[in-house]
Amino acid sequence: MTQSSKNKGSQFSKNNPWIELIQTIVTAAVLSLGIRTFIAEARYIPSSSMRPTLEVNDRLIIEKLSYLFREPIRGDVIVFNPTESLKAENFKDAFIKRIIGLPGEIVEVKTGKVYVNGKKISEEYIFEAPDYNYGPSRIPEDEYLVLGDNRNNSYDSHYWGFVPKKKIIGKAFVRFWPFDRLGSLYKQPAYLK
């Protein structure tokens, strides 16, 4: 092959708009898939279980990096894949709830309050006080107790158990829709009183 025929082949691929379009689309798809898989992804809220913090049809960004560098903490709003007990009930979609109990802690719900290791926690973010009793129950290592902020209308850990760390997809980071509620979801964690 002569030098001029090599140049024509490479010049053809450089100047062909179809080849450039395909290269651009493939590059964008690979970057998008990589970002969604390893860094962040968008999610929407399908139920009222997290009211008032999250409303039906809110759109969120879930970030996936922070738990590579630190453990989840009380107060984090997390998205997680169904646990084994939820899979047994044919749940396939991810859940979103707030972490209330950490590995090794004893959690109890009574008289409309949540207690961790016998101490009441502060919860300014809930819709209303829980009208049920739960526990006391010790959380296994590498697992978390999660509850919805709409305590009396949330299918959460007080029904089906704990969330293993390996099931956590990521932490709810920011709401981007609707625009009038745009902003960070970070709230001071519910520290023990």
TrEMBL record:
Organism superkingdom: Bacteria
Enzyme Commission number(s): 3.4.21.89
Reaction(s) catalysed by this chain's protein: Cleavage of hydrophobic, N-terminal signal or leader sequences from secreted and periplasmic proteins
Compartments where located: Cell membrane; Membrane
Membrane topology qualifier: Single-pass type II membrane protein
Annotated transmembrane regions: 21-39
One cellular-component annotation, GO: plasma membrane
Biological process terms in GO annotation: signal peptide processing
One Pfam entry name: Peptidase_S26
Active-site residues, Swiss-Prot/TrEMBL: S49, K97
Gene3D superfamilies (alphabetical): Umud Fragment, subunit A
Primary enzyme class: hydrolase
Domain Peptidase S26: 18-177
A Gene Ontology molecular function term of the record: serine-type endopeptidase activity
UniProt KW keywords: Hydrolase, Membrane, Protease, Transmembrane, Transmembrane helix
Main localisation: membrane
Family (UniProt): Belongs to the peptidase S26 family.
Protein name in the entry: Signal peptidase I
Organism per entry: Atelocyanobacterium thalassa (isolate ALOHA)
